[in-house]
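Deliverable D2.4 — example input (structure tokens):
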């Protein structure tokens, strides 16, 4: 299917790069191969100590749509921000450098934006394992649009999409005076609720266009426990309480859920969780229990998860490990 808008506005695709020599070429090739050809590809070498910088420069020689930024290491947010600062496109997308995208990704996302008259589109995602296994998030069977209220429910319940920056296409205005927070993990979480608020209406493409590699040694699987996930959820909760009280339940349930998510990081990485941390997580959940009870969109399994953790964390640990073997995304 061709692009609906004959003007073909420029899309800037930003790729933050650090120590991904093994995966980088495949990533870049998948962007070069896009059906939507009016793109600029901004490769941000974030001080990578391996051959990533040279790989970037070699590709820039082959394709004049590629720009390379070499900078001192500053982390994922810093690299993405550097790309945003030089982007010339009317639209902006992000691809992590160990992932790949399907050739129709940006054509489908742009078509959805144009057709729905939105400023933001998100696509379904494939989870790719290094053994070749492919899993995808739940399919709803059709493309859709979400208003801000329902988009926030979907993003925070992680049913068909979440706050990952990379499965989306944004009008550049959404990033006006807004950047990823430096030095934080869960950097997407800190800003996505603000971006959704600016966009108000979100297009959803039910085709899995983004291939998210599940690396055993990735940031999300490191032994460093990501407490920023909870802090970002708290920021979102405070923001919604103040600006969108109709979404108070969503913010408070997401904050309670973040306590479980951080505890799950301990379990996934086989790191001992101190008793005071467990008690803190219980407190966060219990103080938001009325919101949890009132959240009609919550799945039965999520409600059981909350109750089980508060009643018996040891039993929760056993059930969690079994559940993870069955449901891997």
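Example output (designed residues):
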């Amino acid at each position: 299917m061709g692009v609906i808008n004959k003007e073909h506005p420029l899309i800037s695709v930003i790729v933050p790069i650090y120590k991904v020599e093994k995966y980088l070429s495949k990533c870049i090739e998948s962007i070069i191969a896009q059906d939507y050809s009016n793109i600029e590809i901004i490769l941000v070498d974030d001080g990578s100590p391996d051959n990533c910088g040279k790989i970037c420069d070699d590709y820039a020689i082959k394709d004049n749509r590629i720009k390379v930024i070499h900078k001192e290491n500053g982390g994922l947010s810093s690299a993405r921000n550097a790309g945003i600062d030089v982007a010339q496109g009317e639209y902006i997308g992000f691809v992590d450098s160990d992932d790949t995208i399907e050739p129709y990704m940006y054509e489908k996302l742009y078509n959805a934006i144009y057709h729905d008259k939105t400023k933001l589109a998100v696509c379904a995602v494939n989870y790719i394992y290094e053994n070749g296994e492919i899993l995808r998030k739940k399919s709803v069977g059709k493309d859709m649009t979400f208003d801000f209220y329902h988009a926030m429910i979907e993003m925070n319940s992680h049913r068909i999409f979440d706050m990952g920056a990379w499965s989306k296409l944004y009008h550049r205005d959404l990033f006006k005076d807004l950047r990823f927070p430096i030095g934080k993990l869960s950097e997407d979480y800190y800003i996505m609720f603000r971006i959704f608020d600016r966009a108000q209406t979100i297009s959803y493409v039910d085709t899995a266009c983004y291939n998210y590699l599940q690396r055993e040694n990735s940031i999300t699987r490191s032994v460093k426990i990501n407490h920023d996930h909870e802090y970002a959820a708290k920021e979102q909760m405070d923001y919604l309480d103040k600006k969108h009280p109709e979404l108070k339940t969503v913010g408070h349930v997401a904050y309670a859920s973040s306590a479980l998510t951080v505890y799950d990081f301990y379990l996934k990485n086989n790191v001992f969780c101190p008793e005071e941390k467990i008690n803190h997580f219980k407190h966060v959940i219990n103080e938001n229990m009325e919101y949890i009870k009132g959240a009609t969109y919550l799945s039965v399994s999520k409600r059981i998860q909350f109750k089980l953790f508060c009643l018996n964390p040891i039993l929760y640990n056993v059930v969690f490990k079994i559940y993870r073997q069955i449901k891997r995304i």
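The beta strands are 11-17, 39-46, 66-71, 91-94, 100-101, 120-129, 134-136, 144-147, 168-171, 201-214.
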